[in-house]
Structures are given as C-alpha cells and as structure tokens.
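Record 1 of the preview.
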Amino acid sequence: MVCECDGDGDEEDFNVAVGYSLYADNAGIRAIAVTSRCVACGRLGYWVDWMVRTGDTTLLELA
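->
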C-alpha cells in the first residue's frame, strides 16, 4: 500500500485494524471490515469488507 504523502520516501508504515459486528443475538459474526492508517500523515484508508452470511464464530475463537 502506498499513501499519497509518500511517507519518509524510503518506506511507509501503516497501522491496520480489523473490525467486526455481531448478530443481535450474538449468534455469530455478521460483517468484517479491514482498514488502515498511514503512520506518517494519519490518513485513513479503506481496504475491504465482507458480509458473513453463516454467522460462523470460528474466526472469533482464533482471535
């Protein structure tokens, strides 16, 4: 990933975050999203999100 600020010119560092939402009855994961923040300038970036239709909780057990 490359930020518009070009970081320090040699390399760019990012913080990456993964968030999720649960179904109302906590029966499983409803959605997952991945985003990032450039350490040099603080600009936020959006990568991707997924709807998890099965409500599977296996991913929570691995976290």
